[in-house]
Hints:
Chain A has no helices and eleven strands. Chain A is an all-beta fold and about 110 residues long. In chain A, the strands form two sheets. In chain A, strands 2, 4, 5, 9, 10 and 11 form a six-stranded mixed β-sheet that branches. Chain B is built from no helices and eleven strands. Chain B has strands at about 5, 10-15, 20-25, 30-40, 40-50, 55, 65-70, 75-80, 85-95, 105, 110. The interface of A and B includes residues 100 and 101 of A.
Amino acid sequence: DQQVKQNSPSLSVQEGRISILNCDYTNSMFDYFLWYKKYPAEGPTFLISISSIKDKNEDGRFTVFLNKSAKHLSLHIVPSQPGDSAVYFCAASANTGNQFYFGTGTSLTVIP
Amino acid sequence: DAGITQSPRHKVTETGTPVTLRCHQTENHRYMYWYRQDPGHGLRLIHYSYGVKDTDKGEVSDGYSVSRSKTEDFLLTLESATSSQTSVYFCAIREREPLNEQFFGPGTRLTVL
């Protein structure tokens, strides 16, 4: 049973606009959340994370929002650039465990 | 970039043959992981290690075994490869404190005919 879900397999956005990628989780024990970016034929690379004690974390053009009551997190990319075109995975873990659970990914295309 | 290498990067094999994939790190990180990536499934954990000779199963461990005799190496073995094990395999490492994120290797594309 998928504990982390990304319900949008793909997203297209115009360059300069905001990209919003969404992720839902079911396990209330998760307290650490991450976003990874993956280009074809490469391994995923870490993008940004957020602890459950926060509801927002920002790093340059990337902001992650966490809504614990809704068990929902989102990644905002502003402004979107063509180089942001990639597959984005969200992941979650519980501080008491060693495993990470990944969503199925969202393929973002930024149109020049 | 974290020092993680995977070998081989590509492999084609036949059903029923044994296959071993190697993950090598130069970071001295405690935790090492093996994932497989398949369309529609994202990344799924096969096995992970939390120290030398300490390993545990992930969600898709059937048909796979692992070994970690040194901190820097984590081996994934398919004892008798099947076509359902055709996938891209990623190794990842993590040092629990102070960073919690995983760093991934470049991947191994395995095709079982």
